Amino acid sequence: MSKGIVYYEVGEHIEQFLLIKNAAKGIASNGKPFLTLIFQDQSGEIEAKLWDVSDGDEKNFIPETIVKVSGDILNYRGRNQLRIRQIRPASSSDSVKLSDFLETAPLSTEEMMSKITQYIFEMKNPNIQRITRHLLKKHQESFIEYPAATKNHHEFVSGLAFHVVSMLDLAKAIAGLYPSLDTDLLYAGVILHDLGKVIELSGPISTTYTVEGNLLGHITIMVNEIGKAAEELSIMGEEVIILEHLVLSHHGKAEWGSPKPPLIKEAEILHYIDNLDAKMNMLDRALERVKPGEFTERVFALENRSFYKPIFHK
Amino acid sequence: MSKGIVYYEVGEHIEQFLLIKNAAKGIASNGKPFLTLIFQDQSGEIEAKLWDVSDGDEKNFIPETIVKVSGDILNYRGRNQLRIRQIRPASSSDSVKLSDFLETAPLSTEEMMSKITQYIFEMKNPNIQRITRHLLKKHQESFIEYPAATKNHHEFVSGLAFHVVSMLDLAKAIAGLYPSLDTDLLYAGVILHDLGKVIELSGPISTTYTVEGNLLGHITIMVNEIGKAAEELSIMGEEVIILEHLVLSHHGKAEWGSPKPPLIKEAEILHYIDNLDAKMNMLDRALERVKPGEFTERVFALENRSFYKPIFHK
Amino acid sequence: MSKGIVYYEVGEHIEQFLLIKNAAKGIASNGKPFLTLIFQDQSGEIEAKLWDVSDGDEKNFIPETIVKVSGDILNYRGRNQLRIRQIRPASSSDSVKLSDFLETAPLSTEEMMSKITQYIFEMKNPNIQRITRHLLKKHQESFIEYPAATKNHHEFVSGLAFHVVSMLDLAKAIAGLYPSLDTDLLYAGVILHDLGKVIELSGPISTTYTVEGNLLGHITIMVNEIGKAAEELSIMGEEVIILEHLVLSHHGKAEWGSPKPPLIKEAEILHYIDNLDAKMNMLDRALERVKPGEFTERVFALENRSFYKPIFHK
Amino acid sequence: MSKGIVYYEVGEHIEQFLLIKNAAKGIASNGKPFLTLIFQDQSGEIEAKLWDVSDGDEKNFIPETIVKVSGDILNYRGRNQLRIRQIRPASSSDSVKLSDFLETAPLSTEEMMSKITQYIFEMKNPNIQRITRHLLKKHQESFIEYPAATKNHHEFVSGLAFHVVSMLDLAKAIAGLYPSLDTDLLYAGVILHDLGKVIELSGPISTTYTVEGNLLGHITIMVNEIGKAAEELSIMGEEVIILEHLVLSHHGKAEWGSPKPPLIKEAEILHYIDNLDAKMNMLDRALERVKPGEFTERVFALENRSFYKPIFHK
Amino acid sequence: MSKGIVYYEVGEHIEQFLLIKNAAKGIASNGKPFLTLIFQDQSGEIEAKLWDVSDGDEKNFIPETIVKVSGDILNYRGRNQLRIRQIRPASSSDSVKLSDFLETAPLSTEEMMSKITQYIFEMKNPNIQRITRHLLKKHQESFIEYPAATKNHHEFVSGLAFHVVSMLDLAKAIAGLYPSLDTDLLYAGVILHDLGKVIELSGPISTTYTVEGNLLGHITIMVNEIGKAAEELSIMGEEVIILEHLVLSHHGKAEWGSPKPPLIKEAEILHYIDNLDAKMNMLDRALERVKPGEFTERVFALENRSFYKPIFHK
Amino acid sequence: MSKGIVYYEVGEHIEQFLLIKNAAKGIASNGKPFLTLIFQDQSGEIEAKLWDVSDGDEKNFIPETIVKVSGDILNYRGRNQLRIRQIRPASSSDSVKLSDFLETAPLSTEEMMSKITQYIFEMKNPNIQRITRHLLKKHQESFIEYPAATKNHHEFVSGLAFHVVSMLDLAKAIAGLYPSLDTDLLYAGVILHDLGKVIELSGPISTTYTVEGNLLGHITIMVNEIGKAAEELSIMGEEVIILEHLVLSHHGKAEWGSPKPPLIKEAEILHYIDNLDAKMNMLDRALERVKPGEFTERVFALENRSFYKPIFHK
User: What is the CATH number of domain C5-96?
Assistant: First the structure.
């Protein structure tokens, strides 16, 4: 297996299969067209330039195409860039497939569904349990494939489910230390909080926002879904409002998209657990690319901070 | 008919029926209990003190009781206060009734419903028309009685309906000048935008927030209602999302309670019309209590400004 | 008549007269100079590159020159760009003139002046009427030609006058619904509010800020003008201060350039009318360039929002 | 001469003449009226209560009356209060006069005017010199008596002139160290920057805001005055705009009331000098009332900070 | 054992020993002195008024005195207040002691020290371990007694140590789920983060800020202490800077008192753990005083929110 | 002596020695490598492009190399750029040295140290004097060479010392006008306030931040140094805390890096003096590059303002 694309250093030569994530045409100063390509493999992505492209090149090298590339890594404005020497589309005889190039969650979908099912099974309040099970089942197919976001954190295939599983484990550990917490609410809140993303986002690859996503957002979408689920299941207790509130408030503040701040203890903790797992994911991804004694690239979603890996961290 | 309570000046004597809006017990420095009463009539309200109260007084003088009061207006910390000399509960022979003391909209409920019905009738898009008509009918009874808010603007009986009627007229006038506006969306947006208040608030008198109001808010409540109405009426076009967006975004900004800002032209204008009518209501009420050449009391919902009435305004 | 420059799509060929709005020289990576030109017609503008320019080219292709251009539309970083194949300055025999390429108000200057004159005629307070008439007359020549701004809204020839006319009609419609409004103040406020721009800005074409505009701004400039007009006309009533306050406060908040917020009812409404008309102008211009089901480009002056045109809007 | 009112400690007895600054009537819990009086002498002020007042008391003890008071200092909610035992209006035989009780600048008005005149004399640019001299002369009578503000800093008789003199000395000292500064602009800016307060404020005693002050503010008022002065003196150079800009921008930021920030070097420095002198005045006044090792009361205009006087400061 | 003072309802009679936390003298409207007393027991505190006090009363009823009180609970402005009927200082024969009235951590100091010692024992990096052990030992006596704050959270005897123990358990649980975390840094960060409070605050009872606390703050104090400890122990690795950074950044943002934001992964997580434990403490304390279906009092340190206890939470 | 690099105008030819401050490799659209060089001399810097570079070029033209360059000044995106025609490394026979190209303070290091020593000599409080002298001596070697910052103000060799000397003179002048100021504290605060930069920054040339600088910052570093100095000198009075506070608070606000705002009068004034001297330095540098009647480039550290040089300023 070849080395991940983000681990190459300036000056190294590269020759391997890569997936085109993005392609944009430009016109060089000599008047000839060129392509700016973003290549992707499971380790991450790299920008590349293909000069003097023909009309055929433009048609061949489009997003979601796998190509065989050879070239050199150089530094452009402080970031690595790939200078392409040779490039050709992969053929069927190359026996490479899309999923080889997509980052995916470190757990299998079966493991993740099994863990989540177990958490739902542990719920004691039947209203909460039934609504959660109903909605998960309704959207399960997308849920298990979607990323948790288009960028920033868990932006990979099955990222949403993996984020939920990590949060459930975290919820269990914290509730073990603070027994006043209602685990039914916490688990249901974790499972439902981002489920609206299966309607807000377009799908697991080349993810964009749908019109409904843009105009309503995943929070409002999911609050509506809970309301309809309760009606369909003829559930009418205060649990319905509380579950809606947990989803509604999980971004924590109006400026961050929650029209009501958390007003239930478990809503406040849900917001925390969500944040903590997202931050750990972002920190680990940023830090694994630098060596001890170095600072990471700036991480936009962490207030643009650049983090330091201590020398004594091997 | 006696003079409105807010129009008395310091030093004047008063003797008339008033409604108790609020009553709170305190202990004076001589160790004896007293009551702080808020009296109300259609012109507004005034604070009063009743000293050395008996147990009977405490039971008699409770909110929503009509009383006959005599006393004097004095100034306490820059605001008028009523010093009670005599007070007794109204009896049936006094032939006074609750509605005599409640401020109410200047149009009759029939006139208002007739105007709104006409606006719905003018809608050309059947999906928008059917959803609007369905929801108005479902909540009509409360809609026609509720205030538009617990304070700040249109905080009187039928204030919500009156606010809607004023906004509809404004929408029509503006759309007459900017013909690119879709009046179906504008009218529907105006009628539905605050309709969730009939669930958020407790009722037309002594209005407070319900639990659902506190945890979800009228915006989320109404967006849910639109979703359920569409399901019930089997309507599935983009109109549903657009109507939900109009309600969702009508506060204009995340900090003001709209998780999505207006992203449709008519949503932006709806936000404007709402604001303009609310401001006119607040300005008129503040200015009608001062004379030319004076400044009003500070108006909290208008950034705490104190407005000036020019000398040449009679 | 040829198609407006902003309506071409990528891949289309173009051959027509255009006005050079802006020209900047650069050095290409082969060491040869090139020009980045901004072309303009009444529909809007487009960027273009002219490679390998001679000294003569540099001298010929300067701002406010009309040229005959042929070339192709391509996409560069998500925006249309024109790749020039041939370009030559227009000659007198081409019978094209500057005003063919400048966007201008949809009403003639005569119509606009006639409407404004009528509004002044309707004023009842002689002090307000005389000051307004005096200042309009003093600056009429520039007023009727200037844009309302260098960008964002009404940034076209006679944009200022057109903005004023629209606002006057809006003021009249609103005052019809809220009869407590003083139309003398509203009309005078509308006419004077941005009149200082005739001193703040350099002129109707290639508009920039003057030194006085940079150091004082159109609000302060106009407040001074009102003061001097009153002195010249020997007017001394409170109307002078009120008119100065209307202009001073019309941006609504200190952060937006008004050292005093509106403290008169009509000042608050003036701020609203100004905003509403500017927003309608920006929204219409952004939306007329997209098809139903699409989002507009981000509009900077509307908090960088991207607006959606519903599918059911033809 | 008796001890200043602010230097008494809890438990001390007091018997001396004081000036009534403010009087407000209240009703005690026994139903009897009382007066809350603010007494003032040159050292500062103290609150006092007069219980069981007669109608005569109410008429005698009004603002700007001198009274002979005896009573005791007690502590009420952490602040000193005077409990009145005896009080009577001063008679002509008491030979006390208003100015004995008003705090005033530490320099005589003659000294101050002489210093300012000298600074104007030193100006080299005739346009700047003439405008400054003209405006100072026009408003000299008020200028020499007014406070610099109604509260916060230099809020005493002739406080405005004293603030200007201190700032002129500071300007001279700073310009001595940074010779690139234009002292003409600095001196003129210092003299004119707050001169509009003679129109914004009501007068030297019991100072309030005028209508013009409320609606326009001293900055706009003075910019207008400069414009009119230039017209009257037929001065037309860029100096006029620059002087207007100095006054316009001297609050430093839009949020602080300057629609344009300083865009001239001397405008930036003027803002600094103004701030520095105001802060020194507030700090000295707050610190002279505490002993080494103590914190001052919170100073509102210094971000509500409480300052510490080090133990080694005697 | 008598019922906790915060659990009494309006109208109930009370007769028990209480600790005076605060006493302030006032003058009633009849001219007689009274005392406002704050009583405290382990459940919380209540305000009380003692009317017509003698000089002896003033001397007897001072802070940190235990008294026997009888009286009635009444409601004053929405909060409970105690109306004292009888009050006397406790005598030695009453066999009550100070610690009976002070809220204290739910774990014994021995248990807490033993847990913390165990965590230090588990550290693997000797530099981190030695500095942590040295500083804990140096300040152990105060550390084990101090509250974690003067108000908001863990504001009880040994609150600081209890907060640290809870955070250590939380750190361990989280590190169990995210194995990339360096537990040495997390544990050391937890133990040291607020240790500077033993210098910032005056002591375990009637806690106030010291001069050093006011001028430097516990963060700066502790960073200095780490620097000195390293010098004393002749430790020079990067661990010293990293430990200083953990303490320096643990408030998360400049506005919250950390001049540097967390730039080490463990620093970011430390900030989270600190927040989470503080919030759980505040939420539990607020919610245990209300019944299901009620909202709590507003919690200032939680953005002034009022939290809801669901009906289905017994 | 040749003309400073920043004073050339577009179109001029240049031929002189320059220092390479920065070099970055890029790949041109023809596939050939090029270098973007930043050249520097005492007047400032300019960007240049070297096309078609060989491997030898890459090795020769690296930062801190002196080169002989000939070429032409052109305009690229509104800024001057140098188009290189010929370039060669300087040889020993060229008799040019590094310091010829570095901007440096206008006073010699001897003069500056002598002035600072004199100010320390004038201190009367022995504790303050001994700590100041001790720390200056400890870091003197770096202090006298370091810039005051990496950009914005006094970013030249010995900039830190020059900034300190200017501030000392300013402190003396201001204290002369406000005699209540403690000059010992002011002088010590000035000398120590930025001394931590000798640890925060890497050195006088090509200055970057050290790890300690990034994680702690110069304020925290210096507060620690004062604490250690006091311990070493066995000084224990309140002066230590006060000096630490002066350094800690000199950025004025939490958002600007001071965890405590100034709470001592001299701390507030120190913050002012620091700001004033930095601003004068930035203003003078920006204004000396434009002619009367022009605006400067935007100055980032002065809220991105562009300053005007009046026409009557020669």
Answer: 2.40.50.140
pTM for this structure?
0.90
Give CB contacts under 8 A, 24+ apart, made by F293-300: F293/C211, F295/C214, F295/D263, F300/F152
CB atoms within 10 A of CB C30: 17
d(CA F63, CA F57): 13
Cα C68 from Cα E277, distance rounded (Å): 72
Closest CB to D83: pick one of E27, E30, E211: E27
Report the distance separating Cα D281 and Cα D152, nearest Å: 9
The predicted pLDDT at position D28 comes to 67
> Which position has the token pair 């024109």?
C82
Q: Is the distance from CB of E13 to CB of E70 less than 8 angstroms? A: yes
* pLDDT (0 to 100) of residue D293: 95
User: Could you report how far apart the first and last alpha carbons of chain D are, in Å?
Assistant: 25
Under an 8 A CB cutoff, do A280 and E269 touch? yes
Question: Is the backbone of residue C47 left (phi > 0), alpha (psi -120 to 50) or beta?
Answer: beta
E201 min Cα distance to partner chain A (Å): 28
C59 vs F: CB within 8 A? no
Q: Which residues on chain F are in Cβ contact (under 8 Å) with D239?
A: 310, 312
Residues across chain D: 314
Q: Token match 């602040």: residue? A: D79
* Cβ neighbours around E179 below 10 Å, total: 7
If DSSP codes are grouped into helix, strand and coil, which group holds residue C89?
A: strand
Question: Smallest Cα–Cα separation from B126: which of B265, B233, B241, B226?
Answer: B233
Q: Which helix (H) or strand (E) holds D27?
A: strand D13-27
Measured at the alpha carbon of residue F108, what is the angle toward residues F106 and F110, in degrees to the nearest 5? 150
Helix (H, G, I), strand (E, B) or coil at C104: strand
d(CA F37, CA F19): 10
Q: Whose CA is closest to C153, among C289, C275, C249?
A: C275
Please tell me the predicted confidence (pLDDT) of residue B6.
Answer: 86
CA distances from E154 to A176, E145, E212, F314 (A): 20, 12, 22, 66
Give this complex's ipTM. Answer: 0.87
- Residue C40 burial (10 A CB sphere; 0-12, 13-18, 19+): buried
Mean pLDDT of F81-87: 90
Q: How far apart are CA D266 and CA F287, in angstroms?
A: 12
Higher pLDDT, F215 or D97: F215
Check whether D1 has a pLDDT greater than 60.
Answer: no
For residue F23, give the chain A residue with the closest CA: A77
Distance from CA of A13 to the nearest CA of F (A): 16
* Token pair for A50: 């293909």
Exposure string for D248-269, b = 16+ CB within 10 A, e = fewer:
bbbbbbbeebbbbbbbbbbbbb
CA distance C174 to chain B (A): 7
CB atoms near residue F240 (< 10 Å):
20
Q: Where are the domains of chain E?
A: 5-96, 109-283
pLDDT class of E39 with cuts at 50, 70, 90: very high
CB-CB contact of A259 with B259 (8 Å): yes
The residue type of B89 is P
pLDDT one-digit tens code per residue, A201-250: 998 877 889 999 999 999 999 999 999 999 999 999 999 999 999 999 99
- Return all residues near F183 (Cβ < 8 A) that are at least 6 apart: F122, F123, F171, F172, F175
Cβ neighbourhood burial of A118 (10 Å; 0-12, 13-18, 19+) = exposed
Verify whether the Cβ–Cβ distance C308 to A211 is below 8 Å: yes
Query: Hey, what are C153's tokens?
Result: 């809204």
Q: For testing the chain B interface, which of C181, C268, C281, C295 should be mutated: the one with the most B CBs within 10 Å?
A: C268
Q: F173 vs D176: CB contact, 8 Å cut-off?
A: yes
Q: Is F233 on the interface with E (CB under 8 A)?
A: no
